[in-house]
Amino acid sequence: MKILLIRHQKVDMDWEHRCSSEEYDRASELYDGADILPVAYPQETGDYTRIYVSTLKRTMQTAEQMFPAFPPSMITRTRLLDEVPLQAFRHTEKKYPRWIYDMLGRAQWALEKHQKETRTETKKRADQLIDLLEKENENAILITHGFFMSVLISRFRRRKRYEVYRSSTFVIAPLEKVKVTDRQPHCGGCRHNCLLEKAGCLIGQDKARKLGIDFDRTGR
């Protein structure tokens, strides 16, 4: 089984730089109903046989624009992929920058206070999704949301069964892809750096390719 995680395309909406708690919550609702910016480069799904999206329209729009040839009947919507909901950290008429609401709201989520979903509930939802994927045992694309995607990646890693391939360690960008595969047998060296010209695991092979090693020449 292999999984491709994709964050949805950027939403076509400009936020106010400073807002009250009521304005922040209203803007969050508008964001959930807004359309995405056009996806510039449609792609093929390769050997991925199903696409899962959240119940929020921006993930479905991303799937339709990014993979226009994929059969709609093979796209499954599930609340298990929904973004972790966020609301103002407290009621206030004072106008704060948006990042204050985002940062303090996520801190409350971590402390399991005041937010609509707790950290424990989010982790449980992510585990339920992985259980579903393991039961179906198919190669699938998951189009989801930035914060939930980071939680989902950590839950995949926790199971020890999977290798997670991510090119960036910073905030997950729109349309960023993260590959999750069953863990490959290790080729025997220390931390995948052994004999890269004869690497026997995917991580070692990826490192070898980045170094320009020709696998055809070495018989790989």
Annotation keywords:
2 domains; six-stranded mixed β-sheet; globular; alpha/beta
Plain-language structure description:
The protein is of the alpha/beta class and 220 residues long. It folds into two domains: 2-183, Rossmann fold (3-Layer(aba) Sandwich), CATH 3.40.50; 184-220, no CATH class. The chain has seven helices and eight strands; from the N terminus they run ββαβαββααβαββαα. The strands form two sheets. The protein has a six-stranded mixed β-sheet, with helices on both faces. The protein is globular. Residues 216-220 have low confidence and may be disordered.
| Gyration radius, in Å | 20 Å
Report the principal-axis shape: globular
Largest sheet: 6 strands, mixed
Return the CATH class of the largest domain: Alpha Beta
**CATH superfamily of the largest domain, called what?**
Phosphoglycerate mutase-like
User: Quaternary arrangement of the chains shown?
Assistant: single chain
Q: State the low-pLDDT regions, or none.
A: 216-220
Whole-number mean pLDDT: 88
CATH architecture descriptor name of the largest domain: 3-Layer(aba) Sandwich
| Total count of domains | 2
Beta-strand content estimate: 5-15%
Into which percent range does the helicity of residues fall? 25-40%
Compute the number of helices.
7
Helices and strands, in order, run as EEHEHEEHHEHEEHH
Q: What is the third-level CATH name, the topology of the largest domain?
A: Rossmann fold
The end-to-end span amounts to 23 Å
- Across the major sheet, the strand order is 4-3-6-1-8-7
Structural class: alpha/beta
Count of DSSP E strands?
Answer: 8
